[in-house]
Amino acid sequence: MHLDDVWLRYRRGGSWVLRQVTAELSAGEIAVVLGRNGAGKSTLLQLIAGVLRPSRGRVAGRPAAVGWVPERFPADQPHTVSAYLHAMAAVRGLRAAAAGRAVDGWIERLGLGGFRDVKLPELSKGTAQKVGLAQALLVSPGLLILDEPWEGLDAATRELVPAIVLEVAAAGGRVLVSDHRGETVRLPGAARWTVADGGLAVAPAEADQHCVVEVAVSAADLPGAVARLREQGHRVLRVREEVGS
Amino acid sequence: MIALTGMRLRAFVRTGRSVAPLIAALAVLSVLYGGGRAEAGEAYGASALILFPVLAWQTKILLDVEPDVQRRLARVAAGSAGREITAGLLAAAVAGLGTIAIALALPWLVQGVKPDPGGLGGDVAAVALGFGVHLLALLPAVALGGLACRAVTRSAGNGVAVLVTGAVLAIVLGLQGSPVPWLVPPLMATARFTASGSGAATALWLTVHAFLWSGAALAVYSRLRRTRA
């Protein structure tokens, strides 16, 4: 999908929030959206999600299934966690059985099992944010947009976000993540989109950037695993015993 | 779209926001039928007229129940602005039909209308006519309520101003002798029609007028909502 010379302002005659924005996001690509508070990151993300319409220019090639996680989940609603997610699954066109599987799967994975029958306004900020994350993933998104997804999340779920992002990208989805707290160091290899003064500067992912992946292998298979990794051109930096094993 | 319609109706009921317009509808119907028995057709004409602002208010409340960010999430989940906008209007129409059902049944329960001398067939015809004239009020009421909702007006004060101005103009500009009756939905004309028992041609013209006005107002609403998520 691509943005062609996109301009946006909220009111006719008002000042431009975004100007001459041109960018492209290919299938499987991850981009981190950076910028100071008020620079227009959330506006850009809502424009790409289809929530806002450009005043000029166009957003083309947006995938059919878009998952958007807003910066603050709107918890002031009279539904329980389970009822809300089932309703959103139905809105996304899932039939009852498929909706049940999707909802149960994400409730389990995000640790929401104990909150199924809790009403949304009674949730803590972090738990509500998990519900916001779950609703965006009920169908496999062709475009996943995460607006400050780490806000309020517990340590376990913070670790889970990069894994989810990589899974969506591996399945051919495009991912955009905004961040002003430096959490996106957890997403090495992502392109950098910087919003400033209404414009967008795009820096592609560094091709020669290397990342460290911690992998646990069976002790019996350790020599073979190390050899295979080296054969594939990877550098094995260190071998250690798994803590707690 | 049906799923989103149901979700919005459930929120409307579960938050208790449906109670206030229901009480308002019962109050105005009580005033209407508290003074003695009337001919069913004429009574329904007056009922549709006085329920118009209540139905518009009910629509505004229903559309305002959802937090702004949830409305945007619904737009993304539904896959298009058109589906999200239509689901809201459908939910408002279904809620309005519930109020209309009460308005049609209540006068018979409190003996506010005279049974037709022709028997049950005449009464059924009167209820059918009543349903029709209430529908002619519901369509423009949903459109006016939509134009007064927070997503369009962006503030509670502006929303109330749109709602009150629209309801007052609908009555004032609909009075007999108005130079511009076509500017407003034909509520007053419909009430006069049910009182006088004019012919089918008048009924057809009132229907066309109500549909054209509602269509134009809903087109404006849809256009505004596409840029005001």
Automatic annotation (TrEMBL), chain A:
The keyword Transport applies. InterPro entries: AAA+_ATPase, ABC_transporter-like_ATP-bd, ABC_Transporter_VariousFunc, P-loop_NTPase. GO terms for molecular function: ATP binding; ATP hydrolysis activity. It comes from the Bacteria. Coiled coil: none annotated. It holds the Pfam family ABC_tran. Keywords: ATP-binding, Nucleotide-binding, Transport. SMART domains: AAA (SM00382). Residues 1-223 form the ABC transporter domain. PANTHER family: ABC TRANSPORTER ATP-BINDING PROTEIN ALBC-RELATED. This is ABC transporter ATP-binding protein. It comes from Catellatospora bangladeshensis.
UniProtKB/TrEMBL annotation, chain B:
The chain crosses the membrane at residues 84-106, 126-148, 160-182, 202-221. Keywords: Membrane, Transmembrane, Transmembrane helix. It comes from the Bacteria. This is Uncharacterized protein. The lineage of its organism: Bacteria, Bacillati, Actinomycetota, Actinomycetes, Micromonosporales.
